[in-house]
Amino acid sequence: MPQDEQRLTTLIEQALELEEIDLNLFRSKTLWLPAGARGVFGGQVVGLALSAATRTVDPKYRVHSLHCYFLLPGDNTIPIIYRVNRSRDGKSYVTRHVTAEQRGKSIFTLTCSFQSGESSALEHQYPMPDVLPPEQLKSTEEKLQHMMDHPRVGVIPKLREQFKMRLEEPIPIDIRDCHGLQRARDLVRPPRKEPKQYLWMRAKGTLPDDPAFHNCVAAYCSDHYLLTTAALAHGLTSFSNPRLSMLASLDHAVWFHAPFRADEWLLYEMESSRTINGRGLCFGRIYTRDGRLVVSTAQEGVIRAESRSVILKQISNTPANESSKQEKAAKL
C-alpha cells in the first residue's frame, strides 16, 4: 500500500478513536475543526458517539438507527467526554443514550438502537439513481485545485485563500460529486437549482473488517454536504449576495438497513423538501455500488442568509482589459 494511503487510513481511524476512562465513560483523542466552521465537524461528533455506544453492546447486536441533537459547537482544543447510559438490554433490541460534554456542559446527545438480527420475507427499497461512476468524476481535491488555478479566482485573495485552506485539510474521505466542475461565476452568482445532489464517497485506504466500525465511518460521512442541499434552491454560497451566512446542524438521524464497507464506493443521494423559519430539512439515501440501499439519513439545520457586496465589488473593480483577457479562460 502506498505510504500516503497508509497515512490517510490512520487518519480516519484516529478520527474515530476513543479512550475508555471509566465504565461507560469515553474521551475523544483527535478533533477536526473544518476551515471556516463554528465548531468540531458534526459527523465526527456523531461517529464518536456511536462508537462509544457500540463499545457497551454485545457484538451480536448491530446498530439499526440513531437520532441526535447538536446543542453547542464543539471545541477542538479540548477532548469531548462521552457518557453512555445503558437504557435497555432486551432480547432482540438494545438501546443506548449518549451525552457528549465539554467544560461541564452537554454539547450533543444521541440515542441509538441495536438489533440482534431477524430474517423476513418482506423487503423493498427505492431504486438507485442512474449517475456517472466515480472513475469518471473529479475528486474534491482536484476540484479545489482547479478553482485555485482559475484566473477569476486568482484576482480575489479571500476566495483563493479559502480554497487553499480547504485543500490543505487532511480529509480521510474521498468525495466525488456528480455535477461536474463548478463555474467560477457561480461562486458569486449561483443559479437556483432543484434541491437535490448526488456524490460518491469512500474512506481512503483499507479499513478494518469490523462491520461496527464501518457503521461509525458511515455516520461520520453522513454529515458531509447533506444540509447544503437546502441552499441549492436559493442560489446561496459563502460569496453570493445575499450570502450563506450560517449553516449549522440542529438534529440528525441515520438508519442502517444492511451491511456494507465504507472503504468501497457508496452513492449518497440527497434532497431537501422544505426551508422555512430559518431551518432547512434534508433527507439522504446511501447505496452500495451494486444498487443496495444500505443507509437512510435525515437532518434539519439552521440556514441563514445576509446581504453583502464586498466580493461583488472586488470583481467589478477588476481592470477591464484584464477581465476581457480572462473571460474566455474563465468559462468552463
How would you describe the overall organization of this protein?
The chain has 332 residues and is an alpha+beta fold. It has one domain: Porin, CATH 2.40.160. Helix content is 26%, strand content 33%. It contains 9 helices and 12 strands. The protein has a 12-stranded antiparallel β-sheet with strand order 1-2-4-5-6-3-9-12-11-10-8-7. Strand 4 and strand 5 form a beta hairpin. The longest helix has 13 residues. The N terminus and C terminus are likely disordered.
**Separate helix tally:** 9
Shape: globular
CATH class: Mainly Beta
Count the strands? 12
**Rg measurement, Å:** 21 Å
Q: Sketch the major β-sheet.
A: 12 strands, antiparallel
What count of structural domains? 1
Residue fraction in strands: 25-35%
Order of helices and strands: HEEHEEEEHHHEEHHEEEEHH
Helix content: 25-40%
